[in-house]
Structure formats: structure tokens, C-alpha cells
Amino acid sequence: MPNSTEITKKAADHPEGAERMRSGQFFRPNCDIVERDDELLLLADVPGARSDQIDVKFENGTLSIHARVERRQAPETEYLLCEYAVGDYWRTFQVSEAVDASKISAEYANGVLTLHLPKAESLKPRKIAVTST
Amino acid sequence: MRLLYGQTKQGEVEPMDPSPLVGLRQEIGKLLEGFMREPFEGIPWPFRAQGKWSPPVEIVDSDDAILIRLELPGVDPAGVDVTVNEGRLVIVGDKPQPERPGAGEVCRCEMRYGAFRRSIPLPDEIDIEGIDASYRHGVLSLRVPKQRPAGAQKVHVKVAT
User: Fold this and answer.
1) Range 34-93 of A in CB contact (< 8 A) with B
2) Are B37 and A6 in contact (CB under 8 A)?
């Protein structure tokens, strides 16, 4: 079986000012984003990371996700087949909706990070009752 | 292949708003990616896009075992089936699309949902009974112990110099 060089993860360059990690390479996690009436729901695949290794930041309308992942094999390991690389995840989003930053919550289970970004009160849909006179 | 992967540039932030081209680009990328990985295995290729996908794998040949890892984020380990059949290790499971009540617009959809299958050929000298599987933080790890051939003994051969 030949060594495969095809890597199925997308690379992400680290942004200016960010600390360079040991591998020097970040991967861009796959994300699903769903807009609900009262919140934005974001799911990110970060397999291999522990919950205490995940950093989520929201600053000036920019949401950043950083998950550290420990190496699972020694660096000199020879693979029979290697279709993905192991490394940290990094991804940033510009959030155009007004989000209530103080109420952002996150859960982590089975390698998937779930973020709830509640919309600010002023943007939630409101039903205005029409009264007849 | 690389060109399709839209890398994140230095300091670049992505908009959360949907673009009609994003989905199309992803679809083309997925089709090509699947085709490059397993062009003719399993189901016929034209039907692959309809659901079945194969998770990426890493295989290491260590001294006493073959170590196999698959990245399966968001998969319920109880629903993953690992079998050995005709010398192949087959991993089958399903990643159901979650129900999202009250969901409006889906802005981005990059994760794969649906049934997956991966089949890995195994060498003959393995201990099928001793296969061990564990799932942690979205990574499925399998350990397939090697079997020493019965009656074989270590023999030291002196090399004359």
C-alpha cells in the first residue's frame, strides 16, 4: 500500500499576531451555520480536541474558534495510509448579525463544537398586534 | 485539487452570509474528493453524491498490531458497526442530519451527513478476536493485534564476519 499524500483537511493560515503552534499549521474545521429566529447556530468539526483545549472568542463582530489537538503518533511514524493530518484547528467568522456577546454559549460532544449566538433583542422578530378600532 | 479548497488567507475573516456559489463549489469539491479517494469501491460512483460517504483513515503498522484511526466527528459510537469479513475490516455507521426545530436559513453546510462505510483490507496473520475499538472526541481508534504464526520460534542466526 503506498503512502498517500492526499490530505482531506483544509489548511488555514494563522492570522497576524497569533501565536504559532508547534506544528505551524492550522486546519480549517468544517462548519454548519443555521440561522434561527432568535439565534445563529454554528457547528464545527474539531475531532481529536478535548473540551478544555478549545478557545472561542468574540471580539468586534469577529468570532474565532481555536482548538488545540495533540499529536497522536510520534513524528517519525511511518504510515501505511494517511488521509488526514493532525493539527490545531483555526477559523474566524465575521458575524454581520447583531449578536448578544454576553449570552454566547458553547457545548462540545463527540468532536463537534456547538455554538449558540443569540441575536440581540432588537433584531428578534416581533409580532405586533394590530388592534381594530 | 488544491485550488478547490479555498484556503483562509492571512488575517482573512469569512462572512457568515450565504453565497450561492459556496454550495456549488463545495459540491464540486466533495465529488472530486470522493472520486479521488475511492473511485470504484462499493456503490457505483454516480450514486455516491446521494449519501454514502467514506471517512478519512490513517493506518500505522506497529510491531505487534495494526493501528487504524478514523475521524468521525458527531457520530454516535453506539451506531458504529465494525466487522471483519473475508479479510477486510469494515466500518459502517450513520451520521443522521440533526433535527433543528425553528431553523430558518442554512447559511453554510460543510459537514457530511448520512450513512458512511469504509473497508480496509487486513493481512492474514491477525488476531480477529483481539480487535479493540474505542471512540473519543470524535476519533475512532481500532487496534488489530498481529498473530504470531503457530509454532514459530525466534531463531538467532550468527553472522560470520
Assistant:
1) 34-38, 40-41, 43, 45-50, 62, 72-73, 77-84, 90-93
2) yes
